[in-house]
Amino acid sequence: METEIREKLKKHIIEKIEGVKKDIKSYQLLTRPVSPDNAIGRLTRMEAINSKSINEAALNKAKQTLSKMERALTTLDDPDFGLCRECEEPIPFARLMIMPESDLCVQCAEAMEE
Q1: Can you give the residue ranges of every domain in the chain?
Q2: Tell me, what's the pLDDT at 42?
């Protein structure tokens, strides 16, 4: 992978990491415990608890994404960065821009979903 492309990708990953960190802070606020006598507007306590569960799942997903992107950032300078871990073919730059944490090409990712 060319140096110019690596630098562009590095900048993009850093921006995405900052965005995910902000999302994590937001989800942490939304996953605070729901007190027994607390009703938020028209929400019943059960709806508030359900909403909290959904936000906890989103928080966990965001933490996983952050971890993967931080790993991608640390391995960006490795010679095999950007190669599919299954077929060892180059992962298209457009895919890396969309999902910098990806270590599979589209074909291998689809094959694993089947």
Answers
A1: 3-81
A2: 56
User: Residue 111: pLDDT band by 50, 70, 90 thresholds?
Assistant: very high
Do the beta carbons of residue 102 and residue 14 sit within 8 Å? no
- Tell me the per-residue pLDDT of 31-58, one tens digit each, with 9 for 90 and over: 887 666 655 555 577 787 788 899 999 9
What is the separation of C-alpha 93 from the centre of its chain, rounded to a whole number of angstroms?
18
The vertex-91 CA angle with 98 and 16, nearest 5°, equals: 25
Which residues are paired to 83 by β-bridges? Answer: 90
pTM of the model: 0.76
Element (H, E) at 56: helix 45-75
CA angle 63, 65, 67 (to 5 degrees): 70
Q: Which two tokens stand for residue 74?
A: 């640390």
Cα of 11 vs its chain's centroid, Å: 16
